[in-house]
Task: structure prediction
Amino acid sequence: MTLPEPSARVLTGKCFCGAVRYVVADEFVYAANCHCSNCRRTTGSAFKPFAGIERSKLRLTQGESDVMIFGEADSHDAHCRCCGSLLYSVVRNGAFVHVAMGTLVDAPSIRPDKHIFVGSKAPWFTITDDLPQFEEFPPGAAD
Result:
């Protein structure tokens, strides 16, 4: 993990059963609610709130052998092998992780500011907030 700035907070996170734990710098670059079918299936929910950060700023502190990787080295979902919780997704050619915000124990300073992939959202779910909605991932949103 790249050391955060001296003033940056370090957040903790864990899976449902507690077998896998991690720390991440509270230096997220972006956050969104993703409604794509993959996020819905992997979370079992209408959408996945996630926060994006450089991969080097997340470090597993417990249960590395209990992490189940679904995908390739530079593009995958990381789940707890014991309880199945989705912890994070490795994206952007392995440079970033999308931390599943529901696994954070500590509250991050960032909040999702948009809904993405609403073109494939669950038909039974209605978005009721006033955050911007995008059919896909908006260009430049993760830069």
In short: The chain is about 5% helix and 35% strand. Residues 37-43 form the longest helix (7 residues).
